[in-house]
Amino acid sequence: MKNIYTVPEVVSKKKAGLLRGWRGLKIGYTVSEREHWVSAAGGLLGMLTLLWVSHIWLYGQTGVVPIASMGASAVLLFAAPHGALSQPWSVFGGHVVSALIGVACAKWLGADPLLAASLAVALSIAAMYSLRCLHPPGGATAMYAVLGGESVHALGYGYAFDPVALNAIILILMAVAFNYPFPWRRYPEVWWRQKTAETVQTPSTEEKCMIPHSDLVYALSQIDTFVDISEADLQRIYALALGHQHQQEAGTPSQAQATESAPGAAVRASNQALCPASSSTQNRR
């Protein structure tokens, strides 16, 4: 028998459906409240420094100001410092390459700014992919080179170096300085990969318990879209998940396991979960 609903019930069901749909559009964050405020503090200090250096030290009263796309870069550098899109070469290369392309489009297609701006963004995406420096705010940098007005056009190709390159360098240096004191914020990622490789020597028997590099590359290639996460973080997520599963099966973890934060701790935890024999052998050594 078909259900018959009253008008208030129908409205209530529609509201519930819309609410579920809205919740489905939102990103499910798993970071702590502390991380929210650390990211916000980083953005504040980063942009304050950039604006102060630009106005007081570099440009004075000349009227040249940091481009707005640096605000978007600050979000990536301080809220997602582990992401591939946030790494120094992505930030610097993405902005500078996009700026050069934007200036070229403005010069060649200046009579049609709509086409010039659109083409500048499109070519910037292609160039950033080719040069392995994909950085979303670079698209805004390219578009601003076309639509920024006469003051920007007067800079010519110099726009790519001053203010764009200088702004990017200042922001990167601030990100390195701000993120360094926090042990869970590894920026730039390459420094921490090298440090981990030097301090954590994993026996070959335990390496078999982790996902091989070639398998990760294959899996990412099958997705065939850009994933903003480093291989090191993928391995760490995998290790933490396996370690947590093992701890739940074995009972409450010890205080040493709960507080260990040295590079490679998560990897060792997962290795113990998957390869207890090899782990016990290493402990005896």
TrEMBL record:
InterPro entries: HPP, TM_HPP. The chain crosses the membrane at residues 37-57, 63-80, 92-109, 115-134, 165-182. Residues 32-188 form the HPP transmembrane region domain. Keywords: Membrane, Transmembrane, Transmembrane helix. Residues 249-285 are annotated as: Disordered. The keyword Zinc-finger does not apply. The keyword Membrane applies. Coiled coil: none annotated. Residues 249-260, 269-285 have a biased composition (Polar residues). It comes from the Bacteria. This is Putative CBS-domain-containing membrane protein. It comes from Thiobacillus denitrificans (strain ATCC 25259 / T1).
